[in-house]
């Protein structure tokens, strides 16, 4: 009876109830749309990180803090043993997708034809592994990273960041769009073109597996570039490589220094004829939620395989604090919006219920006279607030889902700050059960709570005074 | 004293209006006999409604003792009072006070729902009550779809739904035209006689004196006089109102099934 009476009371002043419902529904929609957008950002960022670096990395325990100064000093000699141990571990079989070594080094890239060079960070990958890693798509997103350009490419093929291509004046030859060229550079390149120092040319020629002769300029399979790296013993080494493609790396700072190359090539450049090493072993797993368990298993495995090792297992969030910072920022904004909307709902429903109490004062007196206890009055008004909250939340969820579907169908894109590659603009709501439930329950609770004070006041009314309002 | 349906002893009541305390009832001593039709008569402002509120356990006195159906209601908590009202007292208000979103049937049913009565029994009793007040065919109508007289008949049915010891009617005819008002009084009188329930009926219309078994006259917050009609006098007086009820189209009032109201014994007390 209470539920039926509450529902009928809400229908009594339809316009007011509708206005309250609209406020609730619009609030729920706004919260969910922003939450869906934030969820999509999270999924996109996470997918990008995992596709390019795996969920977990095994590396020297000091590499994260000190490795950027001298990455090769933290090379892992037994990386192949580690890769094999992981791949063979029965407890990890169901979890694993890709286990792949990588080598990071600092060096210098020069386009001696144009007379320009700059310090770079080189990253050696096993191309086929990277290609498989880029197929990981736990969230069903549209393609973020295209095919890896080094798959099936010769050892001397490299990918550079778009920013690096710009700085090294490679854009034109790599046919990179939207890549300006400095006006003062016209004569300079001509003056210094083909001015590769003899000693560097000799080093490059001496490098095992070196491809085209350095300084040969654009070839059919890429644009020539010279990479210089310091070997662990301090001696320099140079490789002549061919730039296959320029890829946006997301951030300007990274974009202007990144060179991706084949792992073998990177190892030859850094370690020469010495035993090859890797600075990290990337581990990509099937499900992100399993990171803590897999990390524990990997640590145990390392302890068994390499007793006394100096290695650590870190997940992509530890390695990329920007991810958590971004998520925290969005969560803060989401929380702010929710609090704002919650406040509006609180006052809207509270106002509606207060008006209802005023209008129905005589009725309150009547039902109290007939024998309804104070708690019954409270229950009636709180139920009305609860019903308003439920209908408003359900309407809001339905509206948000419809709007999200519409936005997603439009195939819109957006340009993240500092990036030159547009990303798909989508809103993830339908798969975010927690967010939907949290928002709906939150708004229902707020609506119910906001009815409590009017309900309490209604229950406290003197019966005699209330009956005078008839 | 034990047979009385209500008794008030040395009751006083005052209200505060702004900073002024206004005495409304002073030293009230009155006894309401069971299964009688008591008319509380007095001009506006004489304290009739306040007195009915105290007898109906809607309010508490400043001083004095109020005993209803053998219970000193001054000692009851708010929830106990609510339960006590539900079980022992029915109300008929001047403005009908029906719940507008409920149908006539549901309005009568409401006190029974509060009592937790099982649905089938509830439906049976409400149907018979609506039949008794001549509104069986309007059971599905909401109050807004009923005339004033019909609404008041629904209110009477609601007041009787829980089979109370006492029905309090505070100027139930004030918002009705004279013919309808007379019909309502006739109906209440008929109900009171039929089921031997105590009715207390307030009015400032001295023309209603004839309807009373007992007459309590109030003025300025004190009881001026209490007159009780002798045995045999009440039937004749009631007959006039029953005649008026016939004029309102209530002549068809059906004989009520004894089983449905078997809760009342001959003396008006609830059956064990």
Short synopsis of the structure:
The complex is a heterodimer of chains A (470) and B (272). With 470 residues, chain A is an alpha+beta fold.
Describe the structure.
The complex is a heterodimer of chains A (470) and B (272). Chain A has 470 residues and is an alpha+beta fold. In chain A, 53% of the residues lie in helices and 16% in strands. Chain A is elongated, with a radius of gyration of 32 Å. The two termini of chain A are 23 Å apart. Residues 189-193 and 210-220 of chain A have low confidence and may be disordered. With 272 residues, chain B is an alpha/beta fold. Chain B has a single domain (34-60, 77-247), classed as Rossmann fold (3-Layer(aba) Sandwich), CATH 3.40.50. A 6-stranded mixed beta sheet of chain B has the order 6-7-8-3-9-10, with helices on both faces. Chain B has a 4-stranded antiparallel beta sheet with strand order 2-1-4-5. Chain B is globular and about 45 Å long.
pLDDT under 50 segments of chain B (min length 5)? 234-272
Rounded Rg of chain B: 18 Å
Q: What's the order of the H and E elements of chain A?
A: HHEHHEEHEHHHHEEHEHEHEHHHHEEHH
Total strand segments of chain A: 11
Largest sheet of chain A: 6 strands, mixed, barrel
Rg of chain A computed from alpha carbons, rounded to a whole number of angstroms: 32 Å
Strand order of the largest sheet of chain B: 6-7-8-3-9-10
Number of strand elements of chain B:
10
What is the typical, i.e. mean, pLDDT of chain A? 87
For the biggest sheet of chain B, the summary is: 6 strands, mixed
Report the CATH architecture of chain B.
3-Layer(aba) Sandwich
What coarse outline of chain B follows from CA principal-axis ratios?
A: globular
């Amino acid at each position: 009876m209470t539920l039926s009476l509450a529902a009928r009371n809400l229908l009594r002043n339809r316009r007011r109830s509708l206005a309250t419902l609209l406020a609730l529904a619009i609030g729920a929609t706004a919260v969910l749309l922003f939450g869906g957008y934030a969820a999509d950002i999270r999924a996109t960022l996470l997918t990008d990180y995992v596709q390019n670096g795996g969920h977990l990395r095994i590396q020297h325990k000091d590499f994260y803090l000190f490795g950027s100064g001298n990455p090769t000093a933290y090379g892992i000699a037994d990386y192949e043993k580690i890769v094999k141990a992981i791949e063979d571990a029965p407890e990890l079989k169901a979890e694993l997708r890709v286990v792949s070594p990588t080598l990071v080094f600092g060096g210098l890239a020069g386009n001696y034809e144009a007379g320009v060079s700059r310090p770079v960070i080189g990253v050696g990958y096993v191309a086929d592994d990277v290609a498989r890693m880029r197929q990981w798509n736990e969230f069903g997103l549209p393609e973020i990273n295209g095919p890896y350009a080094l798959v099936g490419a010769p050892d001397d093929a490299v990918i550079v960041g778009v920013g690096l291509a710009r700085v090294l004046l490679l854009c034109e030859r790599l046919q990179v769009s939207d890549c300006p060229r400095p006006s003062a550079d016209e004569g300079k390149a001509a003056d210094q073109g083909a001015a590769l120092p003899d000693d560097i040319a000799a080093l490059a020629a001496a490098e095992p597996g070196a491809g085209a002769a350095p300084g040969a300029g654009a070839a059919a399979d890429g644009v020539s570039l010279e990479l210089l790296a310091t070997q662990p013993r301090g001696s320099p080494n140079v490789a002549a490589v061919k730039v296959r493609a320029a890829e946006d790396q997301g951030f300007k700072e990274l974009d202007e220094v990144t060179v991706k190359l084949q792992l073998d090539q990177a190892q030859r450049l850094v370690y020469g004829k010495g035993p090859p090493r890797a600075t990290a072993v990337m581990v990509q797993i099937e499900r992100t939620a399993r990171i803590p368990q897999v990390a524990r298993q990997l640590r145990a495995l390392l302890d068994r395989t390499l007793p006394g090792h100096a290695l650590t297992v870190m997940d992509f969030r530890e390695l990329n604090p920007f991810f958590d910072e971004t998520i925290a920022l969005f969560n803060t904004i989401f929380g702010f919006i929710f609090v704002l909307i919650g406040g509006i709902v609180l006052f809207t429903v509270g106002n509606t219920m207060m008006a209802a109490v005023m209008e129905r004062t005589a009725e309150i007196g009547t039902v109290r006279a007939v024998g309804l206890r104070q708690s019954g009055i409270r229950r009636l008004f709180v139920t009305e607030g609860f019903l308003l909250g439920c209908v408003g939340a359900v309407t809001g969820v339905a509206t948000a889902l419809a709007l999200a579907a519409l936005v997603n169908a439009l195939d819109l894109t957006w340009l993240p700050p500092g990036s030159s590659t547009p990303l798909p603009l989508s809103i993830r709501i339908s798969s975010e059960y927690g967010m939907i439930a949290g928002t709906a329950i939150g708004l229902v609770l707020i609506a119910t709570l906001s009815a409590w004070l009017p309900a309490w006041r209604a229950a406290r009314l003197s019966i005699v005074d209330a009956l005078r309002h008839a | 004293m034990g047979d009385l349906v209500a008794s008030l002893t040395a009751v006083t009541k005052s209200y505060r209006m702004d900073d002024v305390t206004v005495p409304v009832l002073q030293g009230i001593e009155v006894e309401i006999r069971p299964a009688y039709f008591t008319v509380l008569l007095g001009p506006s402002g004489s304290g009739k409604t306040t007195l009915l509120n105290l007898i109906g356990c809607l309010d508490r006195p400043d001083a004095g003792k109020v005993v209803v159906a053998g219970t000193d209601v001054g000692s009851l908590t708010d929830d106990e009072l609510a339960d006590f009202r539900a079980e022992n007292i029915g109300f008929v208000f001047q403005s009908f006070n029906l719940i507008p979103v409920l149908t006539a049937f549901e309005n009568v049913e409401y006190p029974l729902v509060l009592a937790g009565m099982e649905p089938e029994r509830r439906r049976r009793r409400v149907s018979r009550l609506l039949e008794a007040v001549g509104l069986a065919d309007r059971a599905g109508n909401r109050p807004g779809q009923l005339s004033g007289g019909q609404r008041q008949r629904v209110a009477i049915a609601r007041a009787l739904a829980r089979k109370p010891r006492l029905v309090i009617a505070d100027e139930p005819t004030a918002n009705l035209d004279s013919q309808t008002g007379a019909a309502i009084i006739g109906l209440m009188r008929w109900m009171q006689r039929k089921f031997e329930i105590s009715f207390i009926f307030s009015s400032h219309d001295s023309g209603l004196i004839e309807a009373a078994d007992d007459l309590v006259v109030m003025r300025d917050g004190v009881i001026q006089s209490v007159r009780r009609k002798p045995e045999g006098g009440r039937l004749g007086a009631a007959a006039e109102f029953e005649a008026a009820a016939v004029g309102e189209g209530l002549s068809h009032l059906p004989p009520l099934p004894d089983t449905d109201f078997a809760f009342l014994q001959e003396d008006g007390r609830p059956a064990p």
